[in-house]
Amino acid sequence: MPLFNYESSWIPNVLHCYGLRLGEMERDCLIVYSASMLIFERLLLSSDPYQVQVCKKCGLLGYYNHKLKTSYCSMCKNGENMAKMRLPYACKLLFQELQAMNVVPRLKLTEG
User: Fold this and answer.
1) Which SS3 state, helix, strand or coil, does residue 63 take?
2) Angle at 23 between CA 20 and CA 27, to 5 degrees
3) Is this prediction's pTM over 0.70?
4) Predicted confidence band at 101 (pLDDT cuts at 50, 70, 90)?
5) Average pLDDT over the chain, rounded to whole?
6) Which stretches within the chain are classed as H helix?
């Protein structure tokens, strides 16, 4: 199915290819009704999940070397205390932009 099919209706193509948008008001309504799994599915799984390496010691995002298959924390200078975590790609970009402005967001990891 082509991405833009001008012969048929425009709305079904948008709904089929991209899904429905979940705005801030819809998100707030779902939070009020305690629909946590629906929020998790719409804001992470359906959008842009990304796997990152997080240092358990300092809480910063690390790096993964695909060639050596090892993780590395640039702050701690080792890769011993690294954990895998899934978060939206937009969240990862936000963390990196904050770090570029010298604001360091740290993640506290717990066993779950």
Assistant:
1) strand
2) 105
3) no
4) very high
5) 80
6) 10-18, 24-32, 36-40, 89-100
User: Which domains, and CATH codes, for the chain?
Assistant: 1-47 (no CATH), 49-112 (3.90.1800.10)
pLDDT tens track for 62-89? 988 889 889 999 899 988 889 999 888 8
Continuous segment of H or E residues that includes residue 83:
strand 82-88
Q: C-alpha 45: how far from its chain's center?
A: 9
CB atoms within 10 A of CB 60: 18
Between residues 28 and 15, the one the model is more confident about: 28
Q: Which two tokens stand for residue 84?
A: 């895998």
Burial of 54 (0-12, 13-18, 19+ CB in 10 A): buried
CA dist 77 → 2, 21, 29, 69, 74 (Å): 48, 41, 44, 16, 5
Amino acid type, 85: M
φ, ψ of residue 96 in degrees (nearest 5) = -70, -35
